[in-house]
Design a protein that fits this description.
Largest sheet of chain B: 2 strands, antiparallel
Structural class of chain A: mainly alpha
Helix content of chain B: over 70%
Helix content of chain A: 55-70%
Structural class of chain B: mainly alpha
CATH topology of the largest domain in chain A: MetI-like fold
CATH superfamily of the domain at 92-325 in chain B: MetI-like
Pfam families (chain B): BPD_transp_1 (PF00528)
Strand content of chain B: under 5%
CATH class of the domain at 92-325 in chain B: Mainly Alpha
Number of strands of chain A: 0
Protein name (chain B): Cellobiose ABC transporter membrane protein
Strand order of the largest sheet of chain B: 1-2
Radius of gyration of chain B: 31 Å
CATH architecture of the domain at 92-325 in chain B: Orthogonal Bundle
Number of domains of chain A: 2
Largest sheet of chain A: none
Number of helices of chain A: 13
Radius of gyration of chain A: 26 Å
Family (chain B): Belongs to the binding-protein-dependent transport system permease family.
Oligomer: heterodimer
GO biological process, one term (chain B): transmembrane transport
Membrane topology (chain B): Multi-pass membrane protein
């Protein structure tokens, strides 16, 4: 393993150790290039990659075979040809397309609401002056750590009282705003918009909302995308609440779990369902995986 | 466009005011503008606070009210019984069982996960080729939803034909009863959490590692600190705040674990195993509220768990501060000592003339 020089500032590296090492190895790498890690490091990464994706691959392999595959003594590596047959079994057991549509509707509404209200509140906390700003912000931070999921009993009673159980409205309501969203947007906007820009817009005669719309939103866009991506993920993966309030009008996760509760469990069908349900996110990942990675890393530094 | 977008006021434009139109208009506009400046911030934060109060905070507080009543799902609110539900739960072995299971699964997932995530982050924190590819590759498990993870792993951990037991048998190892033994089931459930979240946390820690200024490492390397030494005495302390963040998030999430144990063995008679081997507290809460219909007791469970989560969060915070402050003390003590010694030697050298500076360096190295 390399003992190394800093990846981030390659041009600075001229330290004696690196050079000595290079000389010892007799490798004529150009001076000023940071040392690349050796094969060992790539070996570890490759092992992590293969090990990390194997469970998913395994479900595809079993999901594309008949139900004897799971009994094989040595873990199977190659897929069979029955994936679509198993998938059609899935489609006839649970309302897959309806639940997919439900999940898309639910996640989109939640994401839009969280992103919009968080940006609005985050902008106010970051850039506007008003009485009680500090106190209210502390309140938001304090609620970050509050497990609101534990309020499910009154939430459930409320949905029942309103007659909303079984509807997507009930699924959406409890997560329309999050304290994390407000905190995240505030942290981002506080540095990113210069006060002068807001003042200039005000001097030009824009009212407060117009200033927010024309100055705040454009500046907030990258953070809004990140927040949107994660809110969407969270809404998409949620299971407890949709299972409780709308099992008869299931989201994708609820429908997927219903596959498992059949009396006779055919693992190849269940696993093909799991793979099928993962496909939408896999596509998102292939298209936006880079943003997901940088989003997680940005969130870490800011949060 | 200006503040004139706000709705026209009813008292606008009586003929008498025409005498001084400019002045009147200006003041009105100013007044509106001032109102806009004063009210806007509150209007912007209001949707969040109103909605949050309604759907987040109020239910949590109302849970406490419910917990003080004998409250059944069908008959609704019964009589006020004070803390009886709490007393009943604290004396209920099933409650303690669920708490034990939750903590056990939490520790089995949080500790190995943190260690692995730090390791992976350190591996990624190098001058890699195709680094975006490697970063993305460790994130693949994250896109598999918990329900799908639970389905995949509960098949893999099947007792008769599961992947894991098949492998074990082919090595002539006795198959493990993953779904009926306490520790084995906790291990299996923890492995689901670990699989999904390790890469995600590794990326968070990687971001923290990359924020450490590189020239510090360079000068440490020049001073002869090896990679391991640099990792333990420089990298780890500088990513501590992020580690605390990861731990606290893991605590809040981990103590509310539901999906994985719920779907681990759907054919089991009880929620969370035939003999509640892996019934976690939220699962127990669910069972109490929606299967047994006792909202009062279920609410008491929710509040007890709430107190535990907040308590552990504060404990994490306090411990991390303690570590940080003792570290600062140790460092400043060392510095003070060095300074004193340096002064003494320079004073001595001043009197004896020409004592080599090297002694100072030696002294410092020894300390």
């Amino acid at each position: 393993m390399s003992t190394t020089s800093p990846p981030r500032a390659p041009e600075k590296v001229t330290d004696a150790r690196t050079q000595a090492k290079e000389n010892r190895r007799g490798r004529g790498r150009a001076r000023g290039l940071a040392e690349r890690p050796g094969f060992f490091v790539y070996g570890i990464l490759l092992a992590l990659f293969l090990g990390g994706s194997y469970p998913l691959w395994w479900s595809y392999v079993v999901g594309s075979s008949d139900n004897t595959a799971i009994t094989e003594t040595w873990p199977p590596l190659l897929p069979g040809g029955r994936f679509w047959i198993n998938v059609s079994e899935v489609l006839s057991t649970v309302p897959f397309w309806q639940s997919l549509l439900n999940s898309i509707i639910v996640s989109t509404i939640i994401t839009t609401s969280v992103v919009f209200f968080s940006t609005l509140a985050g902008y106010a906390f970051a850039k506007l002056r008003f009485k009680g700003r500090e106190g209210l912000m502390i309140f938001v931070i304090a609620t970050l750590a509050v497990p609101t999921q534990l309020g499910i009993i009154p939430q459930f009673m409320l949905m029942k009282e309103l007659g909303w159980t079984g509807t997507l409205g009930a699924v959406v309501v409890p997560t329309l705003v999050t304290a994390f969203g407000v905190f995240f947007m505030r942290q981002y906007l506080v540095d990113v918009i210069p006060d002068e820009l807001i003042e200039a817009a005000r001097v030009d005669g824009a009212n407060m909302f117009r200033t927010f719309w024309n100055v705040g939103i454009p500046a907030a866009r990258p953070a809004m995308a990140i927040l949107g991506l994660f809110t969407f993920m969270t809404a998409w993966t949620d299971y407890l609440w949709p299972l409780l309030v709308a099992p008869q009008n299931p989201t994708l996760q609820v429908a997927l779990s219903q596959l498992q509760s059949a009396k006779y469990v055919d693992y190849s069908v269940v696993l093909s369902g799991a793979v099928l349900a993962t496909l939408p996110l896999l596509i998102v990942f292939i298209l936006a995986g880079r943003q997901l990675v940088s989003g997680i890393m940005a969130g870490a530094v800011k949060g | 466009m200006t503040t004139m977008t706000s709705p026209p006021r009813p008292d606008t434009g009586p003929a008498k005011k025409r005498s001084e139109p400019n002045k009147a208009k200006l003041t009105r506009r100013q007044r509106l503008s001032r109102l806009d400046v004063k009210a806007s911030p509150y209007l912007y934060i209001a949707p969040f606070f109103v909605l949050f109060a309604l759907i987040g905070l109020f239910p949590l507080i109302y849970t406490f009210v419910v917990s003080l009543n004998d409250w059944d799902i069908l008959s609704g609110p019964g009589e006020w019984i004070g803390l009886d539900n709490y007393v009943a739960e604290l004396n209920d072995p099933y409650f303690w069982n669920s708490l034990f299971n939750t903590m056990s699964i939490f520790l089995l997932s949080a500790i190995p996960q943190l260690v692995a995530a730090v390791f992976i982050a350190a591996v990624l924190d190098q001058n890699l080729r195709a680094k975006t590819f490697w970063r993305m590759s460790i994130l693949i498990p994250y896109i598999v939803t918990p329900v799908a993870v639970a389905i995949i792993f509960s098949s893999a951990f099947g007792e008769k034909y599961g992947l894991i037991n098949n492998i074990l048998t082919s090595f002539n190892i006795e198959p493990v009863m993953w779904k009926s033994e306490v520790f084995a089931s906790h291990f299996a459930i923890a492995s689901m959490v670990n699989w999904r979240w390790t890469g995600y946390n590794a990326l968070i820690l990687l971001a923290a590692m990359q924020a450490v200024p590189r020239d510090i490492y360079e000068s440490a390397a020049l001073d002869g600190a090896g990679a391991v030494r640099r990792f333990f005495s420089m990298t780890l302390p500088s990513i501590r705040p992020t580690m605390i963040f990861v731990i606290i998030t893991a605590t809040i999430g981990g103590l509310q674990i539901f999906t994985e144990p719920k779907l681990f063995n759907p054919t089991s008679a009880n929620l969370g195993g035939a003999h509640r081997e892996y019934q976690t507290t939220v699962l127990y809460l669910w069972d109490m509220a929606f299967n047994r219909g006792d909202f009062g007791k279920a609410s008491a469970i929710a509040w007890l768990l709430f107190i535990i989560i907040v308590g552990i969060g504060l404990l994490n915070f306090a411990i991390s501060r303690k570590i940080a402050s003792t570290e600062v003390k140790v460092i400043s003590k060392r510095r003070a000592k060095k300074l004193a010694r340096y002064r003494a030697t320079t004073a001595a050298s001043a009197s004896t003339t020409g004592a080599p500076a090297a002694t100072v360096v030696d002294e410092e190295k020894r300390s």
